[in-house]
């Protein structure tokens, strides 16, 4: 196995994508314990990357600074987990020895010297597994089973005791087909009736959208717009479970080891096969007979939460009603 001193993993898109790229960072650290692992990403993922034990530093991506940033690194390899033409060109100009990208992007042909043939969009693999395909450029041929992914995130885990409350995160920033706000309202009322405390999270903009629909009190509490990303990461670890569609906080919850209940339509390329939360306590619900996420009823989600409530502190034999996928590898 070749000696590597510094490797850059480049992923300049969203928070959820960053979380699902951390396992490949963890595996690289297992293979190369002494390597300096540098993450190239946008500034808003800094708090997530900073909490990952596998990543040594973050380079903040900006179009204006990327060329100079990569030249200054003197890296041995760069893995283009998210393809960007300017990053690929800057890596070539920086004379990084191993420049690894997917064959399907034409701008990689003149800029990368390791072209890996695979398609994310139509692959049957999960997004966290797909990143491992790029390691072929380093002569590493390994795709972990989904059961192994939770051990590779490198994010702090929630405490086993003294957690309480259910987080509802209605917004997705356009990354998913959203569950209707009215369904979240009905679910919050159901959980309150069962004696649970419900927290609503999201950005200030998302909060302005959903606040008028909720009746907030000491059991249904609005946290939207009040938390930085670092504070949200800590808050998620203090709760029992998070409910959301495919969005960053759902993947953070799964990686943190709390309950993560994802609401999906079973349709490629946006379905749970590629984007489900992967964690020891992660679950997915899909509509029973349609491709409409609105056909997942609040009662159905409440039933699943009730089956999990009080059993999330330790792994258990999962409750498995119809249209609920329980195990990370399912």
From TrEMBL:
This is Glycosyl transferase family 9. The keyword Transferase applies. Keywords: Glycosyltransferase, Transferase. GO terms for cellular component: cytosol. The lineage of its organism: Bacteria, Pseudomonadati, Nitrospinota/Tectimicrobiota group, Candidatus Tectimicrobiota, Candidatus Entotheonellia. GO terms for molecular function: ADP-heptose-lipopolysaccharide heptosyltransferase activity. GO terms for biological process: lipopolysaccharide core region biosynthetic process. It comes from Entotheonella factor. It comes from the Bacteria. Pfam families: Glyco_transf_9.
């Amino acid at each position: 196995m070749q000696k590597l001193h510094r490797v850059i993993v480049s992923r300049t898109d969203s928070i959820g994508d960053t979380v699902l790229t951390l396992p490949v960072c963890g595996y690289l650290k297992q293979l190369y314990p002494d390597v300096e692992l540098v993450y190239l990403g946008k500034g808003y993922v800094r708090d997530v990357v900073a909490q990952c034990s596998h990543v040594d530093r973050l380079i903040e991506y900006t179009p204006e600074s990327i060329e100079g940033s990569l030249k200054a690194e003197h890296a041995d390899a760069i893995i283009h987990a998210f393809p960007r033409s300017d990053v690929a060109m800057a890596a070539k100009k920086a004379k990084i020895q191993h420049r690894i990208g997917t064959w399907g992007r034409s701008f990689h042909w003149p800029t990368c010297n390791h072209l890996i043939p695979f398609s994310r969009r139509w692959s049957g693999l999960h997004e966290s597994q797909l990143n491992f395909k790029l390691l072929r450029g380093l002569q590493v041929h390994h795709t972990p089973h989904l059961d192994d992914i939770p051990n590779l995130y490198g994010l702090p885990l929630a405490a086993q005791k003294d957690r309480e409350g259910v987080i509802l995160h209605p917004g997705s920033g356009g990354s998913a087909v959203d569950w209707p706000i009215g369904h979240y309202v009905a679910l919050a009322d159901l959980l309150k009736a069962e004696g649970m405390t419900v927290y609503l999270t999201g950005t200030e903009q998302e909060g302005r959208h959903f606040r008028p629909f909720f009746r907030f009190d000491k059991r249904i509490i609005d946290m939207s717009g009040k938390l930085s990303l670092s504070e949200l990461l800590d808050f998620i670890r203090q709760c029992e479970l998070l409910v959301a569609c495919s969005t960053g906080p759902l993947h953070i919850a799964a990686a943190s080891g709390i309950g993560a209940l994802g609401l999906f339509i079973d349709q490629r390329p946006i379905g749970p096969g590629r984007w489900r939360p992967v964690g020891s306590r992660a679950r997915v619900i899909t509509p029973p007979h349609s491709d409409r996420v609105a056909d997942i009823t609040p009662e159905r989600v409440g039933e699943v939460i009730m089956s999990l409530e009080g059993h999330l502190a330790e792994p258990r034999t999962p409750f498995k009603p119809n249209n609920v996928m329980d195990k990370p590898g399912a």
